[in-house]
Amino acid sequence: MEIVQLAEDLLAWTQALSLTGKHRVAEPKRLPLCLFAVAGRLIRTGRRVRVCLDSTWPWTRDINTAMQRLHALAPG
Fold this sequence. Notes:
The chain has one domain. It is about 50% helix and about 15% strand. It contains three helices and two strands. Strands 1-2 form a two-stranded antiparallel sheet. It is globular and about 40 Å long.
């Protein structure tokens, strides 16, 4: 039961800190459909790992913005 609560808290904080507009107030059941089911690839270049998302996905811009906002919050 604790793992489920932790996952719910993580989703809620991620939603509050990184998402904007309609996704920020979306129900948790809608987020996996819109944001977590996007087609993408992990690409390794040098010492970095990058996520390349499908540009035709309707929510790609929202996901990229959210990732940039979370990266800006990270220390270091």
